[in-house]
Amino acid sequence: MVLTLLLVLVVVHVCVEFYLFPVIARRARHVYLSVLIESVLSLVVLYLLNIPLLWSLLGALFIGLSSVAISVWFRASPTGLRYLVVKQLLHFLVLLIVVLFVVESEERVAAKIVLDQTDWWMLFCWGTAYLLAMKPSSAAIALLLQNWTDEVTSTESSGTNKPLKDAGAYIGYFERILIVTFVLWGQLPGVALVLAAKSVFRFGDLKDHGSRMFTEYVMLGTFASALFGIGCGLLGGYLSKF
Known about the structure:
This protein is an all-alpha fold and 242 residues long. Helices cover 82% and strands 0% of the residues. The chain has helices spanning 2-20, 28-48, 53-75, 81-102, 105-116, 120-133, 135-153, 167-184, 188-209, 212-239. The longest helix is centred in the last third of the chain and has 28 residues, at 212-239. It is elongated and about 70 Å long.
């Protein structure tokens, strides 16, 4: 019941926040309308899932007031991915509080039993593997390649070959996340698929560039990123067995 109610409220929030009134392109006058619609839909959901009317009203009211406060707070904040993520996490926290508040005590006990049976150590080890595969690995790879980075970038022209800002770092993040995921799931062929896909997209650049130095630099970065991703995945999987 707890999980069902939480998921339905999350779906309502996502539909209003990203489909009905897209948060990125939302105008100021749409904020209160979106909050009103989400509150009404939340009230309907709570009542249809056998929550008493009084608790449904209080829960919907809390969701609405919290949404207004969060929207007003973030309206003056800089735009960006991190602010979007933090904002949605706050919305999720509000929904979780409402669910835990309106459900019966027996339902909370059942949810606690499920949480107690969760292998938190495995989740912690897997999360650590992903964490290590991001910034620490990126910093280590940058230090590993620093002797050649300036030499390669100095040969790049400022025209069409100029790379996007920080694009390489984010490509590395996504690459290592996929590799860690495949390693933790024991799907090593997926690692080969990631490397093959990257090689296909890189082939055109390497062919057009025509520089052995650039080719070797790309290969060093690719293999280093793959090595760190595989290492983080193996470490997370190994530690989770204890």
